[in-house]
Structures are given as C-alpha cells and as structure tokens.
Design goal:
The structure holds two protein chains of two kinds.
Chain A: E1 4-15, E2 18-29, E3 33-37, H1 44-51, E4 59-64, E5 67-68, H2 73-79, E6 80-83, H3 95-105, H4 110-123, H5 139-151, E7 157-161, H6 169-186, E8 189-194, H7 197-203, E9 206-211, E10 214-219, H8 221-228, E11 232-238, H9 242-249, E12 254-260, E13 263-268, H10 275-283, E14 287-294, H11 298-309
Parallel strand pairs in A: 3-8, 3-9, 6-7, 7-8
Antiparallel strand pairs in A: 1-2, 1-4, 4-5, 9-10, 11-13, 11-14, 12-13
Helix pairs in contact in A: 3-4, 5-6, 8-11
Chain B: H1 2-16, H2 23-45, H3 48-51, H4 60-79, H5 83-87, H6 93-126, H7 137-164, H8 168-192, H9 194-201, H10 206-231, H11 234-239
Helix pairs in contact in B: 1-6, 2-4, 2-6, 4-6, 4-7, 4-8, 6-7, 7-8, 7-10
The chains are: A alpha/beta, B mainly alpha.
Chain lengths: 310, 240
C-alpha cells in the first residue's frame, strides 16, 4: 500500500451558497489513526462523503488509497470500511445476519466469513448474543456491531464518523478500547471524525482541525499543544501571597501567573528549566509540594483556534 | 453482478419476513391480501373464477404486496439510516436497485401463483360440479403475465415515489392512491356492470383487449423503471 492513505488538494464542496468543505488540502499517512476534529456542521461528514465518492467535489481533487475520488470511487469503496454518522445496522435482523449480509457484499468466502464474524463478535463481547435481533440492543452495542461491520472485510482504511457520539462514558470507553485493539491488531488506517477532544488526544497520532469547511491546522497532537498553548508550570503548595506573585511576574520568561487556593499556575513565554522559579518560591518562603510542567490540552488548542476565527 | 443482486435479495427477503420486527405480523401482512383475493372472490364467483377472465382479479394481491414492500425497502432504508452505509459499500447503484426491486416483483408474482392455486382449491371445494374445474391454459398464463407486468409497474412507481417521500408511511399512502384507484374502479365496474360491458365490447375478443392493456401497462412500467433507475444514484440519494 502507498505511504499516503488520503491526499486532498483544494477539495471543495458547495451546497448552493454554502461551502461545506472549502479548499481542503490534507495528507493522511497510512497506518495511523487520524483525527478530523471540528464543531457540529463544520464539514466533517461531508468530507467523508467526498472521500468515499458518495458526493462529487465541486472543486479540487482527492485520492484515497491511490484512487481518484471522481473517477475510481468504486475502487475506493471496495477497499474501505465505514461507520458513518448513524450506525446503519439492520435492526430487524440478528447481529450475525447483519455481518453475514455485509460479508456477502464483500464477497468473502463462506468459511472465512464465518470465522471472521466469530472473531470480531468475540472480540467485541457480542458472540453470545449473535442470534438476537439488533433492535433490542443498546446504542453502545449497536455501535460495536457497526464497528465490527466496518472492519469485517479487513479494509486497509476505515472511516469512522463520530463513533462514540451519544454513548455513555462506559460504552464510549469500551468502544475506544475495541477500536485501539482492532486497529493495532489489523494495522489499518483510521480516519476518525470527532468533536470529543479527549478522545482524539487518546487515540490519534495526527489530528486536523476544521471549521466552516476550512482546515485550521494539522499535525501531531503534542506539537499542536506545544505550538498553540503557552507552556506552563503548575505548583502545588503555598502560601502564594501577593509579594510572591509579583516576584514571579517580574521574571522575563514568565508571561503571567495566577494563584488559586494552594495552586499556582505560571504561564511561560518559552519552554525552560523550572528550577530557578522553584528556587525563587522556596526563597520567598513558599512550601513547594508538587511541581508539574504542563501544556495546553487539545481542547484548549481547539478552543483557541475557534476563537481566533471569530 | 448476479451474485451481488442475489446478496441484496437475500437481505431484503430476510428483512421482509421480519417486517417491523415481528415475524407473525410480517406473515399476516403477506397473507391478508392472499386470503381476501384467493378466498372471498372465488367463493363469490364460483366456477366463473376458473373458467372466465375474472381470475384477473388475482392481480390485486401482488399490487397490495408490492405497495407494502417497495416503500419499506426504499424509503424505509433511508428512514432507518441504513441506506448511507449500504451506499458506502462496494455494491454498484444498479445492483442495489435491482436486488430490491426484484424481491418485490418476485414476491408479487409468487403471490399471484399462490392466489390462483388457492382460488382453484376454493372453487372446487365450495362449488364442486362433479369434475375438477381447471383454468384454461390461456387464462392461466395471461393471469401470470399480467401479474408480472402489474408487479413491475407498481414496483417502479413505488421506487420513484419512495425516493421522493420523506417517510415510508407517506410513500405507501401516495402509492396506494396512485395505484389502487384505477383497478378498483375497473374491478367494481366489471363486478356490477359485467353484462353491459360485455355488450359494449360486443364481438371484441376479450383476450385481445387484455393483451393490448397489458402491453400498454408494460410500456408504462418500462418507462417508470428506467426513470427510477436513473434516479437511484448515490450522489442524488445522499443529498436526498
């Protein structure tokens, strides 16, 4: 497989006057979980539709697994798996029949499809309930079944559109664990859209942020956090009197400092060794119990990007 | 392509017999039209059901059947949000379309066969005249041919309406209006004014009239089928 799973260049899709996807240029390396982050109605689902060849681009181009989305969308769909906005499971059928149908769609040989269905349902903890109609299942179980369906034919690329949306914390965590387990076991590329930043932080090796169809930023989550948020030091201890705060704020490497109860947060202009600051505090009579270097969370990065655009 | 159509038909058939989740309700939905047409009509008409063209009423059964199944298959798939996932698979548009359509047409045709056989049994049981009454070959085959044409016509109209209707219910109601009105008017006219119509037709050979009407219906069915096939495209369905 090519080293690039998805490549887009100025990809654009309009609906009337609305530019749902606006000049998106993106490169997704193969073999990673790529997070595509954005608020509601930012163009995430439309992008998946374009990449799967379900929608035609208005402008620009895109290649998925080396195939052009305009001319070879059949080839893309033949090689990709998808869990779209809705789980899309047939509720009147049993779990096994749902997977059996899609295994036939993917033309898996009879023996292989039985083994694969058993493997996936067992992994998801659903094998014992394979004969039940899906209508009776919880949303979390349906999402798990849909994930199994997306991975059924061992695709090299899987699109997951907000797979944990609407799930409770326990179900969402269980689904994430299943996803990580299956992805590492099968080595697939995952294009994951979400507006859950902690989910992206946990799962993704690379993330892109989109807003109103436009790409805001793309990169390693760690790099984004370093780039977007100023480095900071959290110090637990005390007392943090006004004189201590004034002394800290006069330091050239400190951009600001805030104290709240027994916690002092110092925002730095650049990454630096924290020892001089700790020495200064100890010298001023502060009892330092804990020092932690911190970065902005992905959520803070995301919110900053959203604010910048307003 | 044949394998893929078979796969879609396999799923459609499975879903159909689990209609709205209940197998019993699914079977009842299928059997009620059969019971009405295959029992009530033959009981009322006696041997005329077998020996005359009135057995053409058997086409009511596939009409009802197709009217129920096609909107559920097309509009229902969209309403239940399973269509996007199906369209994101490797199946070509035409395969999905034909798989769904063929299940409805086959079911309608199969139901006609069932109605004709059951009607024959009812007539012989309730109006026994000393010997076994059987359909003349031309009536039997014309009945089957007309049932096939009507099934195809209703299915094609059903697809077109289902692709535009927001819900299964709306698609079924509109289809019922469009499809059931003309044949019911005709059926009641034939039932109550049979002699007058016979006199009006005079020496015209009934089979010729039926074949001309069937030919017109077939032409209309083909036009609607092509229009539905043209409309059933991924790009348009996702936007719908």
């Amino acid at each position: 497989m090519s080293q690039t799973a998805i490549l887009t260049d100025n990809l654009t899709r309009t609906f009337g006057q609305i530019r749902a996807v606006d000049g998106l240029s993106l490169e997704v390396p193969a073999g990673i979980i790529f997070g595509f982050l954005g608020p509601n109605a930012s163009g995430k689902t439309t992008t998946i539709g374009l990449l799967l060849g379900l929608l035609e681009p208005t402008e620009g181009k895109a290649e998925v697994l080396g195939y052009d989305v305009r001319t070879h969308s059949d080839e893309i769909r033949a090689r990709a798996g998808a869990l779209l906005e809705h789980a899309g499971v047939y509720e009147q059928l049993t779990a096994e029949d749902n997977l059996e149908f899609y295994a036939r769609v993917w033309r898996m040989p009879a023996g292989d499809r039985r083994a694969r269905i058993k493997e996936l349902l067992s992994h998801m903890g659903l094998w014992e309930r394979r004969g039940e109609r899906v209508a009776k299942w919880s949303r979390g179980m349906k999402q798990k079944l849909a994930l199994a369906r997306a991975l059924l034919h061992r695709p090299p690329l899987v699109f997951l559109d907000e797979p944990t949306a609407g799930l409770d914390v326990v179900s969402a965590n269980a689904l994430r664990d299943d996803l990580v387990g299956l992805v590492s076991h099968e080595g697939v590329t995952v294009f994951l859209t979400t507006h859950n930043m902690s989910e992206a932080e946990k799962l993704c090796q690379q993330v892109a942020v989109i807003r109103q169809g436009k790409l805001m930023t793309v990169g390693d989550p760690d790099d984004l956090r370093t780039r977007a948020g100023s480095p900071r030091v959290d110090i637990v201890g005390g007392p943090f009197g006004q004189s201590v705060l004034d002394a800290i704020r006069t330091r050239p490497e400190v951009s600001s400092a805030e104290a709240e109860d027994r916690r002092l947060t110092i925002y730095l202009t650049q990454q630096m060794d924290t020892a001089p600051l700790v020495n200064l505090l100890v010298g001023a009579g502060v009892q330092v119990e804990e020092v932690r270097k911190g970065k902005a969370s992905l959520e803070e990065v995301f919110l900053t990007l959203m604010e910048e655009e307003r | 392509m044949i394998t893929d159509i078979g796969t879609v038909m396999w799923k459609e058939a499975k879903s159909l017999f689990r209609y709205r989740g209940s197998r019993t309700r699914g079977l009842l939905t299928l059997l009620v039209p059969v019971a009405v047409v295959a029992i009530w009509f033959p009981l009322q008409m006696g041997t005329d059901w077998v020996e005359d063209w009135v057995s053409l009423f058997s086409v009511v059964a596939p009409m009802v059947m197709v009217m129920i199944t096609v909107p559920d298959s097309f509009a229902g798939e969209r309403e239940r949000h399973t269509l996007e996932t199906l369209l994101a698979s490797r199946l070509p548009d035409r395969t999905i379309f034909l798989g769904k359509l063929l299940v409805a047409v086959c079911l309608g045709f199969g139901m006609t066969v069932l109605v004709l056989i059951l009607g024959l049994v009812i007539v012989n049981a309730a109006h026994w005249q000393g010997q076994l009454a059987l359909y003349p070959a031309k009536i039997f085959f014309v009945d089957l041919g007309v049932a096939l044409v009507v099934s195809l016509l209703v299915a094609s109209a059903g697809v077109l309406l289902s692709l535009r209707a927001p819900t299964v219910q709306e698609a079924q109601q509109t289809l019922a209006l469009v499809v059931m009105l003309p044949p019911f008017v005709l059926a009641f006219a034939l039932f109550f004014f049979r002699d007058q119509i016979s006199n009006w037709l005079g020496g015209t050979n009934v089979i010729h009239v039926i074949l001309v009407v069937a030919g017109l219906l077939l032409a209309l069915a083909v036009v609607l089928l092509l229009a539905a096939m043209r409309r059933f495209k991924r790009n348009r369905l996702i936007l719908a």
